[in-house]
Design goal:
Strand content: 15-25%
Number of helices: 12
Shape: globular
Helix content: 25-40%
CATH superfamily of the domain at 3-45 and 105-161 and 292-370: FAD/NAD(P)-binding domain
CATH topology of the domain at 3-45 and 105-161 and 292-370: FAD/NAD(P)-binding domain
Order of helices and strands: EHEEHEEHEEEEEHEHEEEHHHEEEHHHH
Distance between the termini: 45 Å
CATH architecture of the domain at 3-45 and 105-161 and 292-370: 3-Layer(bba) Sandwich
Radius of gyration: 21 Å
Bound molecules: flavin-adenine dinucleotide
Structural class: alpha/beta
Length: about 425
């Protein structure tokens, strides 16, 4: 049994902490935030590997995990279907996964209000100091402390998030608020709408209290829109009182003026079904889209995982699945090689190139989106894409492509 510290109590950290605890290790998780993280997340696309990681974390996976869809549809600006594709998927929500993982992990090991400020290591031990002055030592440290990882800032300060040039408006709308037209033509599907250089997508998720009964669910949407870094992004990250939030605006602070402008644009360029969803969503929020690409994820007794290691733009729909995968691989090598730098080294060897491929695929999908719209009319530099390719490539299971090193088509290299 080894002492292991996990930094970050979101989904990645909870995967690692649960799996390593079940292996018999003495795991302590340090989370910066105080109180529940719930209420800020929205929909998550599931893949088989996510279910595997949940099982390995000791969680029963059954039909209550999420809402099933059987089809994808792309809507034109007039609301008519531009194309359809059969695809079975289960869509869950960030809060559903958070509760499953958090409730499975002993409270006394999940320490909150622990803002890690510094990390040091020697031949036998890794130590962290938190803002409140507390210190913790362990044999290994697993950092899943997100896109602006404090641990990464110590071990690899050169790795920085890079803005992708667009933002995503997000939110969830109650099923019971929607018209029959939108329910019949969109609600039950993984849907898309492709204005030039933009992309709207959405799918049904459970409603309040994880209620998956028809009539009680919600529609989760993500609308990608370009925003120049110096000008538009700064405005969007500034609240109605003029306060600027450079690393992300809290959902409740998003300016009502920006929400009004976004809804106006929705009426002008999106299918009416999506415009209705945006009108009837109580608190739409936004986030800037970034890439994080690491050249190294293991530093002696410290391993980076989850968003601290790599962030692929959400088009790949696998941020959480990737974190679950990484947690399983870390645990596998610790089981084989003990709680040693060699075990983390083996994790790095197995996952570095895969993480880089995920980022590359996400960039490839994003570039196509930025280059053109639904009918290929803004074809530039031979980037050619239409509703069928968007439906076939977005948020699908790419485990086979990753294993073959083909996450990005050869023609794009
Ligand atoms: C509130 C929230 C909502 C999200 N909603 C969605 C969603 O709807 N859809 C989706 O696909 N993805 C969502 N994500 C991202 C998704 O959870 C991640 O892609 C996935 O969990 C893997 O990232 P991670 O757990 O490694 O990092 P993150 O999820 O970013 O979590 C990092 C954690 O580390 C903590 N932390 C940061 N710095 C420190 C520090 N110095 N000391 C201690 N702790 C620290 C943070 O408070 C946070 O809890 C959300 C993330 C968060 C935090």
């Amino acid at each position: 049994m080894a002492k292991i510290l996990v930094i970050g109590g979101s989904l990645g950290g909870l995967f690692a902490a649960n799996i390593l605890l079940r292996q018999g290790h003495d795991v302590t998780l340090l989370e910066k935030a105080v109180g529940s993280l719930d209420g800020r997340g929205a929909g998550i696309v599931t893949h088989d590997a996510l279910a595997d990681a949940l099982r390995e974390a000791g969680i029963t996976v059954d039909e209550t995990l999420g809402v099933s869809v059987t089809k994808r549809v792309t809507l034109g600006a007039d609301g008519a279907s531009l194309g359809e594709m059969p695809l079975n998927q289960v869509l869950t929500s960030w809060s559903r996964l958070y509760h499953l993982l958090k409730e499975n992990f002993p409270k006394e090991r999940y320490l909150q209000g622990k803002n890690v400020k510094s990390v040091t290591q020697d031949a036998n031990t890794v130590s962290v100091t938190c803002e409140d002055g507390s210190n913790y030592q362990a044999e290994l440290l697993i950092a899943s402390d997100g896109i602006r990882s404090a641990v990464r800032a110590h071990v690899a300060p050169e790795i920085q998030p890079e803005y992708a040039g667009y933002i995503a408006w997000r939110g969830v709308c109650d099923e019971s608020h929607l018209s029959k037209y939108t329910l019949d033509t969109l609600f039950n599907y993984f849907g898309f709408c492709l204005p030039n250089g933009e992309q709207m997508l959405g799918y049904p998720v459970a409603g309040s209290g994880n209620d998956t009964r028809p009539g009680h669910r919600r529609y989760n949407f993500v609308w990608y829109r370009p925003a120049s870094e110096e000008d538009e992004l700064v405005k969007l990250l500034t609240d109605a009182d003029g306060q600027y939030y450079p690393t992300g605006i809290p959902p409740l602070k998003v300016s009502w003026k920006h929400i009004a402008e976004m809804r106006k644009a929705a009426r002008e360029i999106l299918a009416p079904q999506y415009a209705e969803i945006l009108e009837k969503t109580g608190l739409p929020f936004l986030q800037a889209i970034y890439d994080v690409r690491s050249e190294q994820i293991v530093f002696g007794r410290i391993a980076l995982m989850g968003d601290a290691a790599f962030v692929g733009r959400p088009h790949v729909g696998m941020g959480v699945t990737k974190a679950g995968d990484e947690a399983m691989v870390i645990a596998k090598h610790i089981a084989a090689l003990g709680p040693t730098p060699a075990a983390l080294e083996a994790y790095g060897k197995e996952r570095l190139a895969l993480g880089q491929q995920v980022v590359a695929r996400a960039q490839y999908l994003g570039r196509y989106m930025q280059a053109q719209g639904s009918k290929g009319e803004r074809d530039s530099n031979s980037l050619k894409r239409n509703a069928d390719t968007v439906m076939a490539e977005t948020a699908i299971d790419i485990s086979t492509l990753l294993a073959e090193g083909k996450a990005v088509p050869d023609s794009v290299h």
